Amino acid sequence: MPDVRRRRKNLYIDQRRIDRVKRLLHAETETETIERALALAEDFAAFQATVDRGMAALIGQGGFVDRFLPEEV
Question: Which of 13, 22, 38, 66 gives 33 a disulfide partner, CB atoms 3.0 to 4.6 angstroms apart?
């Protein structure tokens, strides 16, 4: 496991958002809420990169039309 370094941070964050996410994640503390939310963001970024690589491979094989590309003028 990588070396985990903890540092104190003073941040201005919307308290309503922290409270809402704390309830959604069933977290005990605000610190746990933020740590878990950051972990979810990291997981999502990794998932998105995997999907992007898969889509690139599909497009590279031909026969796939990307409906989200802007139309050429």
Answer: 22
The residue segments making up the domain with residue 35 are 15-60
Out of 7-16, 29-38, 60-69, least confident range:
60-69
Residue 24 lies in a domain: yes
Of all residues in the chain, what percent carry a pLDDT higher than 90? 58
CB-CB contact of 22 with 33 (8 Å): yes
DSSP sequence for 17-62: HHHHHHHHHT-SSHHHHHHHHHHHHHHHHHHHHHHHHHHHHHHHTS
Q: Model confidence over 3-25: pLDDT tens digits?
A: 678 888 899 999 999 999 999 99
* Distance, CA of 28 to CA of 31 (rounded, Å): 8
